[in-house]
Amino acid sequence: MTGRLPSRLVLWFIGLLCVALLTLFLVCMTTQNQVPWQVMSLQNFRFFSDKNNSISLKNQPSAENELDTELGQNSLQKSDVQNSLRKSESGNEAKSDQANSITISLKPVAKPTETDFFGDWYATDDFPSQTNCPNNIRKRVPQTQFAEMFLHNIPVLQWAKHFSPEEYQRLSHFSGAHGWGSVRAEVLNSSLAILNRTANQMMFDDWENRADRSDCVRCAVVGNGGILNGSRKGKEIDEHHYVFRVNGAALTGFENDVGSRTSFYTFSTNTMRNSINSYAHLGYRGPPISKETRYIFLPDHDRDYILMKAASTHTAIDQGPERSKKPPTYFGEDVTVEKFKIYHPDFIRYLRNRFLHSNLLKTSARGIYRPSTGAVMLLAAIHTCDQVDAYGFMTPDYTLYSDHYYDKQRHEVHFYANHDMRMEMRLWQELHKAGLINLFMRR
Ligand SMILES: *[C@@H]1O[C@H](CO)[C@@H](O)[C@H](O)[C@H]1NC(C)=O
Ligand SMILES: *[C@@H]1O[C@H](CO)[C@@H](O)[C@H](O)[C@H]1NC(C)=O
Ligand SMILES: *[C@@H]1O[C@H](CO)[C@@H](O)[C@H](O)[C@H]1NC(C)=O
Ligand SMILES: *[C@@H]1O[C@H](CO)[C@@H](O)[C@H](O)[C@H]1NC(C)=O
Fold this sequence. Notes:
Elements: H1 4-34, E1 38-43, E2 46-47, E3 55-56, H2 63-70, H3 78-92, E4 101-106, H4 114-118, H5 137-140, H6 165-171, H7 185-194, E5 218-222, H8 234-238, E6 242-246, H9 255-258, E7 264-267, H10 269-279, E8 294-297, H11 302-313, E9 340-342, H12 345-355, H13 373-384, E10 387-391, H14 421-433, E11 438-439
Parallel strand pairs: 5-6, 5-10, 6-7, 7-8, 8-9, 10-11
Antiparallel strand pairs: 1-4, 2-3
């Protein structure tokens, strides 16, 4: 008896060792796939830091620093991102004499660091304000709890000037809407080159010619929430300078509640196609088409860049799900390149990192998580309009309303794994209480 016990223990021990080794092996295999060699060559690029909106690359957080500070952390809080930014910032003051052009080489590491994933630093665009509105949103932000996170010169839109091999290196670290990781350089190069007009660079490109121009740009941002059913807000919405709409925004028959004008239609190719498929029976035929309507792509995939180019040059699409022999007609037969805009991936990533830093980012869904298309639309308006009135966005009493104002039969709000609608709902409440937006609520 006494002789057998130790040998059983040894067997046990060997068994455990095998399991541990196997687990280690599996972990290594999965993380290795995600971490290629990363080489960034960055030239003359200006990045943001919390303290100073216009520091240049010489003050840019060194990649090695971040690897040291972030390695081995599994869970991440927003404050962690900010702390690591601060750490690297202070560590960089000493390096401020370095040349403008730096090549940073990262060795392969065990797992992508959290700062690599979030990339909480951004290009800057100094775009002069289009108005002299005395008390606009951006002037009120510093007195609110959003002061720290709000970047006044984040690029909201991208256009021809934004493509360069250096920028491609920088942004290809981020996938989906958050970077250029899922788009080939040739596609970006040729698509963004199309957007070389002044109109592609600013939100309110017709402002100077508007008869109803005034001191402040007043925007109505219209979500598709069921709260608008029976609201009779249509006239009020249409009386704004600009009306923003998103995805399946059906108008015919709903004018009393939601208005009839669309100045900006925001969508990704995927969400637009889904809306056309899902809402055809409700009379939704595709994006609104009118003289004033501009189209703002939210680029999730290369298909967004491809469709944008084909639509604005009236050429056929020879690849991907939108492939067709004829030029696409979603935006009307005579649409011109001046009508197209496309969100900058830095803007989407900034919104995810700072305004909608969801707990989903701690789960396996973090790779697919992004702010909803409606959320990007509202936050883009907050970063460009002088005043924002928001309609049809989710409110705490959302269970009282159908999912959409255009639903034929009432049904509950759908929640998707790639968005955090409850967090968005709380954000709208906070922005409303802070006086930055005026959110339509029924109670
Ligand atoms: C920000 O950095 C720039 C250039 O390094 C400098 O000229 C400017 O004074 C700084 N601004 C603040 C507020 O620190
Ligand atoms: C971008 O396109 C231009 C013109 O077609 C070409 O000359 C240039 O080499 C391209 N650059 C890259 C990085 O693909
Ligand atoms: C924009 O690019 C096109 C070629 O793609 C060129 O013909 C046109 O002159 C450019 N426009 C401006 C304003 O640079
Ligand atoms: C919209 O409002 C009307 C009138 O209150 C109601 O009869 C209808 O059921 C509502 N539609 C939906 C989809 O909730």
